[in-house]
Amino acid sequence: MRTVLTTLGIGIGVATLLAIVGIIQGLNTSFDKQLATLGANTIYVSKFPWVIKGNWWVFRNRKNLTLEQVAQLRQQADFITAISPAVLRSSDVAHGASQVSNVRVNGVWSDYLTIGNYEVVSGRFLTRADEEVNRPVTVLGADVAATLFPSISPLGQTVRIDGKPFQVVGTLGRKGKVVSENMDMAVYMPFKTFNSSFGKGRPMQIAIAVADAGRIQQAEDQLVGILRRVRATPPGAPDDFSLNRPDTLAATYEQLTGALYAVATGVGLITLLVGGIGIMNIMLVSVRERTREIGVRRALGARQRTIVIQFLLEASSVSAVGGLLGTTVGLGTAKLVSLVTPLAADVRPSTVLGGVAFAALVGLLFGIWPAARAARLDPVEALRYE
Which residue among 95, 99, 139, 276 has the highest number of C-beta atoms inside a 10 angstrom radius? Predict the structure, then answer.
């Protein structure tokens, strides 16, 4: 019974650790996939940083970006392969009796297709001609198209965005969510059409694709110099714009998950410590109960090293069995959480092996004292023990 309870304690510790780590690893994998949809070679220039630290009003009071600045970047930057201004609003999109609310309406140039790494599944994307003649056309995200046109092709159909008619010229492939934003619940229209339909007062950001992801830091340094010059930023003054990249979000996310890792590790280590103390206690009791057996073995020629190895193997075996049971429960818990909740789970083989190995190591460490105590028993006194 003592062994079973100790094994259970080790198992609970390993199960807790693996369940939490599995969920965190799943979230990390999911987040990495989401960021990959933004592209490793993209930069987004805006008034606000994606992660705001400090006084929000400092960013709010910055000057808006302008189309002239977009033109200057296109002319002067060496690393840019595609550039587009982008404005955004939330609107209702309707077709006939069907309507979708809170759709992200984007005003962009044709280059935005390349920058955002989008795939056109039917029709076409926006063109420069659409922008130049201010055509009332739009491209639908996957969820918008599926909701408004479940059984017919949306191409050539007319949708109403806040009551204004737009002709559908294309639909996009699925992108999924990026940081809780559904990228498929969106529509795209020419930048000039957006401004003429909904006004020009909204802040604009500039989306940029860089030719080589390995030179993105050089591109960023060049962009800073150009923007400071065209925006007349005084020497010594801080930048009055923000350069946002997907890895900025990744760094912030790693800080958050790092805290979760620390908590999970702490909980697991405390539980394993309790289990290790339990192993040490049952092994000490086992040494006392098996004193005569130890004396007989020593009298028949067993060395101290043999006794030490015997008790260490017993301690590590108890701990490893607990680790194996805990691994099974932890994996099952992580998968169950991923099935019944939005949280993802992704336990890697190295994590499983690490959990079992660490549990066995706990048994070895806490079995050293009982093993050494058993090995140091005097054979004559041990044989007399009743």
Answer: 139
